[in-house]
Amino acid sequence: MFKLKNMNTESINLEFVTSREDFLEDDIDFTKNEVAEFLHEHLGRFGDPLEDIIDAIDYALSDEKGKGGFVLVLHDQDEIIGSVVINNTGMNGYIPENILVYIAVHDEYRGKGIGGNLIKETAKKCKGDIALHVEYDNPARKLYERSGFKSKYAEMRLKN
């Protein structure tokens, strides 16, 4: 499945998590909070507070009308080496159907093609277009551009 530079991929697995119950199954060796903590640690200065990451995961795994999405977790046995959180927007056309809220690769595994492979797997599993927010000085921006993302708008926010 994954073609990674200088890595044995035999023990690497990708979990596709679509509900809270998926984290309770015996074949998944990690919890929602462990995934959130992984993202918090490996997003570094480009991340959000842990509570916000947990909220995004909860949104992705919600079965409430207008919510949903999924979480991808790439792991080598019991060590998480990459993760993605996708939230459905409930829209299409003028706003993409999906937002890639978080993607992170373990610091020790960067430069091996994991990020690009996670984006490819994410695109396969999404129905519709995908948007993401990235800071201009984030080095991952190059990965997103290589993966086909285009900059359409500058985001502006009014905090109330």
TrEMBL record:
Matching Pfam families: Acetyltransf_7 (PF13508)
Keyword Acyltransferase assigned: yes
Superkingdom of origin organism: Bacteria
Keyword field: Acyltransferase, Transferase
Domain N-acetyltransferase intervals: 14-160
Gene Ontology molecular function: any one: acyltransferase activity, transferring groups other than amino-acyl groups
The keyword Magnesium belongs to this UniProt entry's keyword annotation: no
PANTHER family in alphabetical order: ACETYLTRANSFERASE (PTHR43420), N-ACETYLTRANSFERASE DOMAIN-CONTAINING PROTEIN (PTHR43420:SF12)
Protein name (record): Acetyltransferase (GNAT) family protein
Organism field: Oceanotoga teriensis
Taxonomic classification: Bacteria, Thermotogati, Thermotogota, Thermotogae, Petrotogales
